[in-house]
Write a structure and sequence with these properties.
This protein is α+β, with helices and mostly antiparallel strands. The chain contains three helices and seven strands. It has one domain: Peptide Deformylase (Alpha-Beta Complex), CATH 3.90.45.10. The strands form two sheets. It has a five-stranded antiparallel beta sheet with strand order 1-2-3-6-7. The chain has a two-stranded antiparallel sheet with strand order 4-5. Bound molecules: nickel (II) ion (NI).
Length: 173
């Protein structure tokens, strides 16, 4: 497994739309494994291929990681799609591509998500609360949307400016 580099905002590659895959192949499985390795190393609970510069509709989530003795139980999904939605909730979100910032985002409370697992089998996930939030957040990434795109323009540009400055400072040192 290879640890991949996570792009951080305002990297333009995070704004691109990922393409559906035809089938989950060995190459897709390698990508999924590398993404999981990358996510766990960064202490995240979700990662989208867009965040590692791969424009394929592939995500990994593990919302229980860190809650039960560091046991890993990654859920891989290719071509995820919301097929039913209900209700609304507000959640404080963060993102590995927007380090050190969080914001409240309004999401759908309950979703039914369809997609392909790592064995190229179609699966359906009935998600509420954190899992529903995490899946919507990762699926957003596949369309080039960050959680800060859901907050006020003023707050968003403030965060992006600070991230840009931090990257410039790091580039100089
Ligand atoms: Ni994210």
């Amino acid at each position: 497994m290879t640890r991949l580099t996570i792009l951080t905002a305002p990297d333009k590659r995070l704004k691109r739309k990922a393409l559906p895959i035809h089938a989950v192949t060995d190459a897709t499985r390698r990508l999924m494994e590398d993404m999981a390795e990358t996510m766990y190393h960064a202490q995240g609970i979700g990662l989208a291929a867009t965040q590692v510069g791969v424009l394929q509709r592939v995500i990994v989530v593990d919302v229980e990681y860190g809650q039960k003795d560091g046991k890993k139980n990654p859920c891989f999904l290719a071509n995820p799609e919301i097929v039913a939605r209900e209700g609304e909730l507000v959640w404080t979100e963060g993102c590995l591509s927007v380090p050190e910032y969080t914001a409240e985002v309004t999401r759908t409370a309950k979703i039914l998500v369809k997609g392909l697992n790592q064995h190229n089998q179609e699966i359906t996930i009935d998600a509420t609360d954190l899992l529903a939030v995490c899946l919507q957040h990762e699926m957003d990434h596949l369309d080039g949307t960050l959680f800060i795109d859901h907050i006020s323009r003023l707050k968003r540009s403030m965060i992006l400016q600070k991230l840009k400055k931090k990257q410039q400072d790091e580039g100089r040192s």
